[in-house]
Amino acid sequence: MVNTTITTYAMIRNEIVEWSDFAARNEWAAAALEKRPVTTTIPDQCVAVYYVIDKEKKEIVKKLYCTTYDSKYKSDFKDLNLKWVSTLFKVEPSDLKQLNDPEGSIVVPGGNIIFVLEEDHKVAGTVAMIVHEGACELGKMTVADQHQGKGYAHPLMREGIAWARRQGYPDITLYSSTTLEKAIRLYEKHGFVTTHLGKHPYYERCNIIMNLKL
Questions:
Q1: What residue ranges do the domains of the chain occupy?
Q2: pTM of this prediction?
Q3: What's the pLDDT tens digit per position in 122-137?
Q4: CATH H superfamily, domain 1-169
């Protein structure tokens, strides 16, 4: 089913603003939206639409969708994450538990998985909001290789954080590695601060813990 409440945004490089605010400041925006052909239906579980803007040409370049978990994207969640983890690190048992059974290990316990989709509904990236012992964790963040550098991680971060706020969590924690410098900068841009540096007792690749107060 399609969510009844879908928020729309304008995305200019790495800057994201609500579409209504963007349209109010740019008189050409409404006409650009009207001229944009409707090429696809809104995907199930859609929570937000991001219009990628070229301000110089005054046009909408493309449209991205963000959705919450849908079982049809289960294999994408696994494949995208296995690729980046196995390329840079050792795949750990905790990874396989979540990737092989995202419903049982993430969704059923109260968490969710956010996907960013291209206009043709192909998955371009994903992030998991994992709930355990009453706390919310952000993890399994990845964007497909062919979409790296396009800013797609920002809608994922924004929607993951928004989901945690809607659920009433006071904060979000994430576990990462300082070798992932671009990822750390992304997290910092979205308000996360470092709370611990050093080897983690359970997660082999983790040597940094970050937290965002909501």
A1: 1-169
A2: 0.93
A3: 999 999 999 999 999 9
A4: Gcn5-related N-acetyltransferase (GNAT) (3.40.630.30)
